[in-house]
Design goal:
- This is Flagellar hook-associated protein 2 C-terminal domain-containing protein.
- It comes from Jutongia huaianensis.
- The protein is mainly alpha-helical and 193 residues long.
- The protein starts with a helix and ends in an 8-residue tail after the last helix.
- Helix 1 crosses helix 4, helix 3 packs antiparallel against helix 9 and helix 5 runs antiparallel to helix 9.
- The protein has 9 helices and 2 strands, in the order H-H-H-H-H-H-E-E-H-H-H.
- The protein has one domain.
- A hairpin with a 5-residue loop joins strand 1 and strand 2.
């Protein structure tokens, strides 16, 4: 790996850790696979919200190109994590919010593609670093900062997903407690919602 690639990846990891501050373990596959879904969704939603805020505060000029690229890569990773963690959830409100988020991205896919961020068939994003690097800083700012609607909308939707994941955690732990109590008393309880 060349020095430039190492520097970019190292700094992307820094921005990922910052986005997941308070629960940096949520970046690792092992942790993600071993924790309750609500906990991972909560961490991912908070990370997307933080990345949307970061995209609003960046300096979009040629002097800050590497920082913008690193933050864009971290944004794509956090967004993809949220897409993955909200997959196959049983909460209808969460499903509705995910659909709203993916619809907003689809509505802006041409703008995103013009700066190298492509929407894949499964709803996730990819970043073409070469195309992103060739885009004018003003164009990137127009699409990713608060001048456009993507980061503002994502921040709002991610915040709603975060709040809903907290309710999901309460439902899950409440249902588990009810099941344990019923098991201990020998009674059966219908936990279907």
């Amino acid at each position: 790996m060349d020095t430039v690639s190492y520097s970019i990846n190292h700094n992307v990891n820094y921005y990922m850790r910052n986005a997941y501050r308070g629960n940096t373990n949520a970046i690792t596959d092992d942790y993600r696979g071993s924790q309750p879904k609500a906990k991972i969704i909560s961490a991912d939603a908070r990370a997307v919200k933080r990345m949307a805020e970061k995209l609003n505060s960046l300096e979009y000029d040629s002097d800050h190109g590497l920082e913008v690229l690193q933050n864009a890569k971290a944004f794509v990773k956090t967004y993809n994590n949220l897409i993955e963690s909200t997959e196959d959830n049983q909460d209808s409100r969460l499903t509705s919010l995910k659909k709203k988020m993916t619809k907003m991205i689809k509505n802006n896919k041409d703008d995103l593609a013009s700066i190298g961020i492509e929407l894949k068939g499964n709803g996730s994003l990819t970043l073409d670093e070469d195309k992103f690097g060739e885009a004018r800083p003003a164009k990137i700012e127009e699409i990713l900062s608060s001048k456009g609607n993507i980061s503002v909308s994502l921040r709002s939707i991610a915040n709603k997903i975060f709040r809903q994941s907290g309710k999901m955690a309460v439902y899950t732990s409440s249902a588990e407690k009810t099941a344990q109590d019923a098991e201990q008393s020998g009674k059966t309880v219908d936990l279907s919602l």
